[in-house]
Amino acid sequence: SIAYLNGEYLPLEEARISPLDRGFLFGDGIYEVIPYYNGKSVGLVPHIERMIDGLASVEIKCKKSADEWKVLLDDLIARNEGATNNLGVYVHVSRGTDVKRFHAYPENVEPTIFCFTFAIKDPEPVDREKVHAYTVTTSEDLRWKRCHIKSTALLGNVMHFQQGHASGNSECLLYNANNELTEGSSVNAYIVKDGVVITPIQDNQILPGITRRIIIDSLVADGSIKVEERNVTMDEVYSADEVWISSSSKEIAPITQIDGKPVGNGKVGPVWEAAFRIYTDAKF
Ligand code: PDD
């Protein structure tokens, strides 16, 4: 595939960065993953805005405007035959390459900008008998206290994801010291109880997911399913009728097992199907 690196387009396998890049040495960068289905993006503007906010919050001085980002990403998708494929675009802005390894932010360093595309799966069928359901484990959330920043320093997330993966599950749901759900290692999380969708509030313990925003906004606009943003205890998670996760690559995905125990009746639930239909109609 064709990648973008610091103003140039080149085959991905030819892209090279310095080992002194702070993204490599410190995980000192901000990233995004944006889905495009047959050339149509989902949440492009909020993804770009979240990245610009994240860069500002860690003082990475990237001069690209939201409009310039949009042109760059749409162009990269077009160069990778995005019109007839489902592609994710990965966008990575590191603080740049210094002349030495020194923790303080360097002066006069240009950020490194790297983007590439990768194939993503077709959207799931809006059918609870046919959709792929996921199973998850759980763990205390041992990441940092700035989970709202989409940092490229993902070792905490990677370690939690591996906990789920190593035991044959596809995610790990995380809870804080108060036994409240935060999110998954690479996804936001939701429960459904008595027809109400409940998801943890957007604070420093979770990533402000773009898919989460589209889900909440589309359900509120539709009006047929009630949504609450509030703290969710793990007892509520274990006794929920349905549990879902969401991300740019998974859209809304149902969870049918937590730590080997069934969620609700162990089948994908009707609220998932109704919500996924509403989301699917609203996402572009
Ligand atoms: N993951 N929470 C975490 C910790 C995430 O890493 C992600 C995204 C989300 C969902 O956010 P969004 O709906 O904006 O994709 C929540 C991306 C896809 C990744 O790291 O690959």
UniProtKB/TrEMBL annotation:
* EC number of this enzyme: 4.1.3.38
Q: Which GO terms describe its biological process?
A: amino acid biosynthetic process; folic acid biosynthetic process
Which reaction is the catalytic activity of this chain? 4-amino-4-deoxychorismate = 4-aminobenzoate + pyruvate + H(+)
- Record key words, sorted: Aminotransferase, Folate biosynthesis, Pyridoxal phosphate, Transferase
Kindly list the GO CC terms recorded for this protein: cytosol
Q: Which InterPro entries match?
A: Aminotrans_IV (IPR001544), Aminotrans_IV_CS (IPR018300), Aminotransferase-like (IPR036038), BCAT-like_C (IPR043132), BCAT-like_N (IPR043131), Class-IV_PLP-Dep_Aminotrnsfr (IPR050571)
Which molecular-function annotation in GO is an example for this chain?
4-amino-4-deoxychorismate lyase activity
Under which pathway is this protein filed? Cofactor biosynthesis; tetrahydrofolate biosynthesis; 4-aminobenzoate from chorismate: step 2/2
Q: Which Pfam families match?
A: Aminotran_4 (PF01063)
- Name any cofactors this protein relies on: pyridoxal 5'-phosphate
Q: Organism's domain of life? A: Bacteria
Tell me the protein family, please: Belongs to the class-IV pyridoxal-phosphate-dependent aminotransferase family.
Q: Which PANTHER family match?
A: AMINO-ACID AMINOTRANSFERASE, D-ALANINE AMINOTRANSFERASE
User: What function is annotated for this protein?
Assistant: Involved in the biosynthesis of p-aminobenzoate (PABA), a precursor of tetrahydrofolate. Converts 4-amino-4-deoxychorismate into 4-aminobenzoate (PABA) and pyruvate.
| Record protein name field | Aminodeoxychorismate lyase
Q: Which organism is it from?
A: Neptunomonas japonica JAMM 1380
